[in-house]
Structures are given as structure tokens and as C-alpha cells.
Amino acid sequence: MNGAIAVLLLILISQITNACMWSERVEVHVLSANGYPIEGATVKAYYQRNVAGMYDAVETRITGADGAVSFSLCDSAPGYDESTLFYKYNITVVEPFTSKSKLWQDAYDVKRKGLNNLTFVYDFVLSNLTVNVRDGVGNPVNNSVVSVSGAHVSKNKTTNASGTAWFIIPLETVDVRAYFGEFVLYQRVQNLAWDTAITISAPPPIRNNVAVTVRDDEGLPVANLSVLLTTPKAEIHGKTNETGEVVFEEVAFNDVNISIVADNRTIYQRALKLTQNKTALEIVLDLHQPVISDTTIRAFNIGTVDNESYRLFFNVSAHDNITPAADLNVTLYYSVDSRPWVEVRMQNAGEGQFNAIVDLPNANTPFDISYYAKATDAAGNSKEGSRELITINYIPPPPTPTPIPSPTPPRNITSELPEPLKSMLGPVEMVLLSVSDYMWVLIFLVLVILGGTIFVFVSVNAFFYMKKAKKKENEGKVS
């Protein structure tokens, strides 16, 4: 504990006196094999500063574009005379591409007169990549952020007034991107040399004339339609003339959006990617309303005499010249006794028919119901059918069906018999119980037919027998 306090006191005294037992400026240069400075290398200096006899100080620097850093080392640890001073210090370098390290280790030398120049040379070759950024008409772009990325490098630089940025990078395939304004320019560089220069230019400015012609579904031009051309910077409004055309001149953007507004709603919208040539766009609009018939209604009381509940069946027919019936949106609106309107989507029943079922539980007659249907096509055109108001009077509920009594279960007769009759007659009873009523009728008919056949057979034979006996009796009297 006393030793630690002594060390702290020595440090405090040395900081107060700020006297260097020895000092030296160290200049470090980090280069590639072909002499290019390595930017981004980590350089550290380990030396004695406050505590005698050990490396108690570490300073870290990162090389800049010139590949150089500097240190000012000062040994102010007291308690040693000049013959026993701790002169040694270490300089380590780690390059940024593959993290290879190098070490310099030696002592302070008065012969260097306070300046130690160190150069670390790595065994790989680097490329000096020059990136020139130009706008669409060839002018240099100042303050454009340029990024270079590859397997061992990822750097960002900003172009100078000449539109140029420099990168010292390994000889590998890199992706170069330049950012300015709304542009992100890209180029892949695969075959880097010691000195490589590339130019990235924005596409030439668009000066497009966009001609929009609007016709209806019958091919006729539509005049006085509001057409809106939207760019990333502005909205340009126009109206179609008597030929259904409107022209937007000098449109300076690649990506635009065309919208057509009628009756305060957007009836057409499309995104366009413009080219350098004139763009002609012909739009065919469905401006006709669908056709819808009057709505029919049928009412049924699905409740009881004491508790009326009504089911209403609505039907309407609708069609459109452009939109198929399956894509029509037909909606029923109804109101009972002037209450708020209720909206119900009608189901497509095929062949242009649309149905809806509405249940009104606990509805006591008479009550009034207002209703109508509206059809909307794919273009947003809609048409309402006529509005109707009817009164629903009492409708008798369907008659309650008479319940059918359940069949009498068969009686097990053998269960009351003693053994062994129960065991002997049990199988016979099972067979008899398995026979249905229809089978019993069939058996009865068979027995009747069989009995009748036997009766006829016996009667015929008896008749012939009696006839034969009478004949013999007559022959005896004659003789």
C-alpha cells in the first residue's frame, strides 16, 4: 500500500515539474512495396513516461492520406540517475487491409538529436485510384461523396472543386459509387493498375415533351379533363383540348406520374419512365356509368305467430360495357322505419343478377322499409337504381309440421322364456327381428300365392279323382 502511494506521489511530482529525463520526436511513415502511403494504419508507441522501470504509457495514431504519424515522447519518471534511465520504447504498426503488423524496438539515442524517423514498408502493391465525378453535361461535381468498397477496403471521400477524389487501395475488384443530388452513380472496376483513373457521369438531363391524348371507351376525344403530371420537384397541371390532347414541355425528370381527375376524384393514374425522345401517351377511359335495374324485394316471416322475424330477399340486375359483371361492385342500401341507412354488399348470382338477404329479427308488422342499389364499375363510375319505399304487413309464418312418432322398439320375446328354449329360439328371433315391415308383406304375399297354388292343385286333382270314380261306378251298373 505504501509503495502504491509512493508511485502516485512520484507521478504527481513529475506532472507538476513536467521535466523530461529524455525526450524524442518519432516520425513514422507507412508505405506499400511500390511506395504509396498507406492510409488508415494503426501506429502505437509504448514507452516509460511516469513510472520508472516500465512501459506505463501507450499512444495511438492513425495514418492519414500521407501515411504518416508523429509522437513526442517524454520520460518524466523521477528517481533514476542518467546511467540507469529506462531508454527503450516500442513502435508497432498494423496495416488496415490484412492486419499485418510490424515492430520497431530500440532505445533513446542522443545521436539522433531528438528526432527518430521510422519507415515501415509492406510487401504488397497498392493502386492509386482517381475518381472523377461529372454531371449530365460534363461539369465537375464538387462535394460529391464517393465510396469505394471491395474485399479488403471500404472508404469514403469527398470530391474537391475539380470533382476528383483519390483512393490508395489494394489491387482488387472494387465497387465505386458517387452520391450527389438525386443521383447514385455506380461503376465496378476490376483491373486496377498502379495508377487508375475513372470518370463517373450522371445521365444527360431529360428534356422531354409528354403528349397525353384522352379518349373514351367509344374512341371519342374527351375535352376539358384535368391532367396532372407529377415530378419529384413539382406538379404540372394541364387540360385536354377539343382533340383530347394536352402537352407537357421540357419535363426534366426520368420518373413521372400521370393522373386524370374528374368530378373531384382520380379516374386514372400511371407511373412513367421517360426517355430522351418525345413521349406520346394515349389513354382510353371508361366514362360511362353502369346500367342497373330497379330493385325487387320478397319478404318471408321465418318466425312464429307470437314472435315475428322477417327475411327479405333483394334482387337487382346490373351490367357495364367495359367491366365484366364479376368485377362490378353492387351495394344495397336500406332503412327500416326511417332509421339510419344500412349498407350490404350484394352477391353476384350470375347472368348479371345480384342478390342480398337481410334478416330482421323481432320485427313487428307493419313496418316501412326504404331501399335502393348502387353499381360501381372498375373505373369508379357508379349509378344508383331508383329508391323505393314499401310497407311490410303481417305475413303468416310457415305451418308447423306434425311430428312423426318414433317407431315402437321391437319386443324381445325369448328373454322371457326359460332355458334351453331361450338359447334354441334366440337365433330364430334375431332373424325375425331383422326383417323389415316390407319384408313381412313380401313374405305374406309369397305365402298367399303358395297356399293358393296348393289349393288349386288339390282341388283339380280331387275333381279328376271323383270324376274317374263316378265313371267306374257307371260301368259296373251296365255290366
Short description:
This protein has 479 residues and is α+β, with helices and mostly antiparallel strands. Helix content is 15%, strand content 44%.
Secondary structure tally, helices: 3
By CATH's scheme, which homologous superfamily of the largest domain applies? Carboxypeptidase-like, regulatory domain
The biggest sheet, with number of strands, parallel, antiparallel or mixed sense and barrel status, is: 5 strands, antiparallel
Could you report the average pLDDT, rounded to the nearest whole number? 85
Strand residue content: 35-45%
Describe the structure.
It is a single chain. The protein is elongated, with a radius of gyration of 54 Å. It is built from 3 helices and 31 strands. Strand 25 and strand 26 form a beta hairpin. The strands form 8 sheets. Strands 22, 23, 24, 27 and 28 form a 5-stranded antiparallel β-sheet that branches. Strands 25, 26, 29, 30 and 31 form a 5-stranded antiparallel β-sheet that branches. A 4-stranded antiparallel β-sheet has the order 3-2-5-6, with no helix packed on it. By secondary structure, it is of the alpha+beta class. The protein has 5 domains: 120 residues, Immunoglobulin-like (Sandwich); 76 residues, Carboxypeptidase-like, regulatory domain (Immunoglobulin-like); 78 residues, Immunoglobulins (Immunoglobulin-like, Sandwich), CATH 2.60.40.10; 102 residues, Immunoglobulins (Immunoglobulin-like); 30 residues, no CATH class.
